[in-house]
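debug: dumping io for the single-chain case to check the tokenizer round-trip. Nothing else runs in this session.
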Amino acid sequence: MSIKSTVLGFPRMGSDRQLKKLVEKFWAGKATEQELVEGSKQLRADHWALQKQHGLTEVPAGDFSYYDHVLDAAFAVGIIPERYQQLDTAGTQAYFAMARGLQNKSIGIDVPSLEMKKWFDTNYHFMVPEVADNQKFVLHSTKVVDEFKEARALGYTARPVVLGPVSLLALSKTAKGSSTKPLEQLASLVPVYVELLGQLAAAGAEWVQMDEPVLALDLDAAVYKAAFEQAYSEFAKIDGLKYLLTSYFNRLGENLAWAATLPVHGIHLDLVRGSDDLDTALATIPEDKIISAGLINGRNIWKANLGQQLAVLNKIISARAPGRVWVSSSCSLLHSPHSLQPEVGHLDEETLGWLSFAEEKVEEVATLAAAAADPTTVQAKLQVNAANVASRKSSERITRPAVQQRLAALDRSFYTRKAPFTERQTLQRAALKLPLFPTTTIGSFPQTAEVRKARAQFRKGALAEAEYTEYLEAETRKCIEWQDQIGLDVLVHGEFERTDMVEFFGENLEGFVFTKKGWVQSYGSRCVKPPVIFGDVSRPKAMTVDVAKFAQSCSANKPVKGMLTGPVTILKWSFVRDDQPLSQTAGQIALAIRDEVVDLEAAGIKVIQVDEPAIREGLPLRKADYAAYLEWSVDVFRLATTGVTNQTQIHTHFCYSDFNEIFTAIQNLDADVITIENSKSDLKLLGALETHGYAAEIGPGLYDIHSPRVPSVEEMTARFAALQKYIPAENLWANPDCGLKTRGWPEVKESLENLVAVAVNARRQHQA
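debug: decoded output
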């Protein structure tokens, strides 16, 4: 018996972030477009070779992207908004402008990027397509066909990966000035997909992976069943193609009943996050359809319990005809680091034995398929796996009784500020003496090549600790003096000592380990290296107090924020232990942050920001699961922040999200000030404010920091004026969307000078 083994996608960046470096060289004008094309082609070939080497019988093709796969899908079918039509749409100019904006004053080009949102409940960001009324869909790019042909030419059995039309439109938004919902234009889009699929058939494709991740969401069955039937009944007419209908990140639930009736040839099940679907799926999916069993977790880094997953696989095999079962990852391995190989010698052997990155997950998939066919062929691998799984369960490093006891002993007083917001606001205004429309930034300032070089030298031992501290203090002082000089009101120290807003705290907490090259893509060329939470979390000593005290000493008259990352974000942006509830791990982190908040206040810090950009990202995909998550996520934020006096101002920050669904939870956080993404989402926040209201102080972002373009005073003035219609002047702040770490100093300086001018002008107008 032979079982097909495959994965839904592979990380794009490369073992040493080769794609990041190549793309950024191209953006900087140091690589040609041809060099970008050829370098990417080699990277794809390397990844296919690795997957084949580890035993996969079929590799995905088309999962590669220069920036984002949703952007690729939109670009391929001609969803290119009018503002980009003046650019070169045949090459990469328009594509990258849609991704990151383009500003070239010498030739009169200034276009912002598309909106960016989180990809379901992951930390990956996708670009949101804009669909206009009477959108003209055309086959603009054959990228997936070309990459499939590449794989075939290299001798691989390949399966093209295509983002399905229903999900593409469901994830899109209506273009500004238009009124038609994107999904209402499905009939016009389907023929373009038929053309694309026809080209795949002509190129020799047998199976096409049709990614339709919206099937993991709560859907209006009448609307979506009709939409899927409309599209896939047309695809079924293409001779020679078979379709694997693919969803992930959650159970299919009630969508399974009608999805199983679609004219497709196989259905993928995420049996890690959607394992509850299995019995229903076996009873519902017709026996002539393939079941692709997603048994290896594509989103976490723990070794799979192969014995346990083999039992699930055998259950499926026993219920299906021979050859009707595939083994796969639960989702694309995009969300996993590339390989454990660089960690050998960096991590201790015990921890190394617990982990599995993308390369190892490929081998786990292949091992499961081989074990189902004949377990004797992989007996040694199964034994090693069983030993590693047992080691993690029994390790004394995992559990710290004192941490668990402290969390269990808390009562509700630990989750409540000492006075309501209105009383706190009066005391804080008296203490801080801020002007109307106070200005601030979100935290980080540019991490220049010099800053990164100094950090690298310090870590290698080439720079003494005293010298490194002196360097950081000099950078911090310059940063604070410049902020003061241009007129910002609440300052930040710049975070030059931090590689990442989560990694920094993990390095200072117990219960974490850190990889050497465990990078994953966050958006575009931006990669993050999530820490690994393997055990109970606690804070052995203060983490930021000395830096905060020094920073405040650099400003005699203005407050400098203490900058912390919140418990939900640390949880969500780490690879988290899976042997206890997430709420318990988050509670442990919250206690550690609470201790830091209290120490910062004792050190004289009057404004403390506890960032929670991931709180919306953590929202479950199904509404039935919302309440439980929002209860504990609000609780852990309050646990982290309620240990201070009423005079201390607590800030928090939220990133790119749809906030309507969690706005009540945001209110319940009881923060004094929230700064929140706004500029990139067409002021959608205003709708939430109009619906729900917000009594505390708020700083909706006035410009997008993920783009290198500099916003004008006029642009931000219009945005700020719109905000004043919904937010009382005494509660409104002026700030960017997010931190400035990835930007360059010239654009940061010009942008913030413009932002301060907006606030100053608004004060004059308000007083008049």
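debug: round-trip ok. Residues 745-767 form the longest helix (23 residues).
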